[in-house]
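Hi support team,

I'm filing this because I wasn't sure whether my run with zinc ion finished correctly. The job status page said complete, but I'd like someone to confirm that the output block is well-formed before I use it downstream. Pasting the exact inputs I used:
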Amino acid sequence: MSGKLQRVNAFTVDLEDWFQGLTSTNPQVDKWQSFESRVVSATQSLLDLLRSYQVQATFFVLGYVADQFPALIEAIRADGHEIGVHGYYHRFVSRSTPDEFARDLERSIQAVKRISGETPLGYRAPYFSINGGTPWVFDILQAQGLRYDSSVFPARSTLYGFPEAPRFPHPVNGHSLMEFPLSTVRLGGINWPIAGGFYLRTLPYSFVHRGISRLNRQGQPAILYIHPWELDLGQRYNRVTLRERITHYHGRRRLEGKLHRLLTDFRFGPLCSLLSEYED
Ligand SMILES: [Zn+2]
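And here is everything the job wrote out:
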């Protein structure tokens, strides 16, 4: 026995540059070219890490990044990872009209298809911004050929969250789509995010380990997410707001060590490998 629990969990990556994910710099698309792009080197480090554990992940690619760096997307595919989509301009779904969302999504799918020749199966909303106010989103995802969504964050946070949503993977009511919510543990009647981004950077590893073990004992996969910029210790943060300094930068130094431990202690795969468990 390797000591690893046998349940396969999902390792997912939201592929974007640091300034595309920050709410302060995201709207300034005309200035994006003036920011230092660091997504290629940060992603290559992450690919090296995943390769050393022979783990395949799902990369939810921002369409803008796919158009700018097609060779990076090819490199991700060459390592056997799944390519999903993360929209084109990293806009809040909850602040878009259905038409705006549909256009942005289609543009991101086309950007990925030009490289892979394949329609992606999965979607992750920028800022996890699918909630009770965006019921139309699933019609559009299905109409554009997607098979699953992994955007629902069933907890409360400052920027996003859908605390009343189901915590575990489930078919989307009335659609031929699966939803893979980001992982939480339930303690004291509250859902606590454990497996990604700020939470993974900030929480002690023992807490994350207990949380994922608990999910796996319940037969549930953990759905983990990270961003390449979270592993990029060389980036300076002179442009960001105080909130962003915490949500985007706190705990970065400890993240890589935590990922090594997670990849040692648990099994991981791409979300597409979980899809067949749930689809009829
Ligand atoms: Zn993102």
